[in-house]
Prior knowledge:
The protein has 246 residues and is α/β, with parallel strands linked by helices. It has helices at residues 14-27, 39-48, 65-75, 90-98, 112-145, 164-169, 175-179, 190-203; strands at 5-10, 31-36, 53-56, 81-85, 103-106, 149-153, 159-162, 205-214, 220-231, 237-245. α1 crosses α5. The protein is elongated and about 75 Å long. The relative contact order is 0.09. The mean pLDDT is 93.
Amino acid sequence: MSQTLRILLIDDNPDDRTLATRELKRGFTNIDIVQVADAEGLTQALQEGGFDLVITDYQLRWTDGLTVLRTIKGSWPDCPVVMFTATGSEEVAVEAMKAGLNDYVLKSPKHFPRLTAAVRLALEQAEQRRALKEAETRYRSLFDGVPIGLYRATPTGQLLDANPALVKMLGYPNRDALLAVNLAHLYANPEERQQWLLLMERSGLVQNFEVQMRRLDGTIIWVRNSASAVRDEQNQVLYYEGAVVA
């Protein structure tokens, strides 16, 4: 988010825009509010961009809030949107949430203070999503760039992910081709697979387990397979994260 909070306020009622602006300036000291009252203004705002958040009414003379929401998400998928309206319904709210709306605030005196709180929460959620996306990008870059084979697989052997090094090591043309194979079929000796699973069940961790694995062309290679179990809150195994070194 920029240092100055930029909010796009879409409402064709000047009194309601004044009301929303008053509430927002009470809650945020460094804020720039761009007001839109018609379709032309919205088009211009979409071309301008650079907004941290959008607030829209539902009932507008030229369109409705759901259409505005979808338009905003079509141009700025990560931009949070809050609906501030005196009209609409529970069905509209549910449909809007499915389309990506962050919150729905009614235009009534007892709900006015909630507008600032809704905006603050939506901004926090957007920042959390950005941080998560950045972390996932860094993880994927590391996962794909490591020169040893990395994988994730369920206890039943379903491969959930594999990096390019493992794909190349096992001689598959691409990641999807390898993911279509059950991990059990990659073991040249089924008994070694059972030994590995037994060790995982006992301790949740296996290091440098030497095993023969079968490449796509049928050739056998010796590898060291290390892995650990990733569990849920009930201590049930979700999947194994492993590394394979030839």
